[in-house]
Amino acid sequence: MVLVIGEILFDVFPDYRRIGGAPFNFAFHLHRLGEAVRFVSRIGMDAPGREVLAFVEGCGLNAGDLQLDPEHPTGQVQVSLDKAAVPTFDILPDMAYDHIQMDDRLQNLLATPLRLIYFGTLAQRTPQGFRTLQALLSRRHPETRTFCDINLRPDSYNDQVIRASLRQTDVLKLSSEELQMLRGIVGGPAEERALVDRLRSEFD
């Protein structure tokens, strides 16, 4: 089984909105490909949260894995497009997914045989999210591999999150741009292949 943990949110465009978030997209498509997958996130007890619950149930995923937050709203990203349709993302702060808890259900999932844990950095942008994700990763079975979709967004990560995540990562997904952003944090050569080799060596 694959455990996916992280944000689910609404991408709000100028004239429409859609449910997204890199972890949810990964879980959604993995499920459609026939993999056994559990998706853990946190949503608000609000109208958007009810919409998310209905959508997740309709997808065939286990909606019971979504934690309900009475204090924080369901995640939202405001998306604006320039004349070339290149998007700019305004990721709103203090959303429900920033407060994922290590509850009994998540601990029970961790006790099941997991082939892979997928995670990213956005859900670790708050101290609460960072503690939960790192606790989850540190308690995994030695044979459970981890897949980090680092997905760096402005003002949504710091050096501590990056270094801790890389130390917990078996498989790292990132763009060329994100690779150079990592270079600014951990150092290393400018040439891509040499920088990748440096990351593989330092973070195993």
Write a brief structural summary.
This protein is of the alpha/beta class.
Secondary structure elements and pairings:
Blueprint (H helix, E strand, L loop, with lengths): L1 E4 L3 E4 L4 E4 L1 H11 L4 E8 L2 H13 L6 E4 L5 E7 L5 E5 L12 H8 L4 E5 L6 H12 L6 E5 L9 H9 L3 E3 L2 H11 L5 H12 L1
Parallel strand pairs: 1-4, 1-8, 2-6, 4-5, 8-9, 9-10
Antiparallel strand pairs: 2-3, 6-7
Could you explain the architecture of this structure?
- This protein is an alpha/beta fold and 204 residues long.
- The chain is built from seven helices and ten strands.
- The protein has helices spanning 22-32, 47-59, 104-111, 127-138, 159-167, 176-186, 192-203, and strands spanning 2-5, 9-12, 17-20, 37-44, 66-69, 75-81, 87-91, 116-120, 145-149, 171-173.
- The strands form two sheets. It has a six-stranded parallel beta sheet with strand order 5-4-1-8-9-10, with helices on both faces. The chain has a four-stranded mixed beta sheet with strand order 3-2-6-7.
- A hairpin with a 5-residue loop joins strand 6 (75-81) and strand 7 (87-91).
- Helix 6 packs across helix 7 (192-203).
- The radius of gyration is 17 Å and the shape is globular.
- The model has no long low-confidence stretch (mean pLDDT 95).
**What is the mean pLDDT?**
95
Radius of gyration: 17 Å
Count of DSSP H/I helices: 7
Oligomer: single chain
| Number of E strands | 10
Class derived from helix and strand content: alpha/beta
Order of strands side by side in the largest beta sheet?
5-4-1-8-9-10
Percent range of helical residues:
25-40%
Distance between the termini: 24 Å
Which regions contain 5 or more consecutive residues with pLDDT less than 50? none
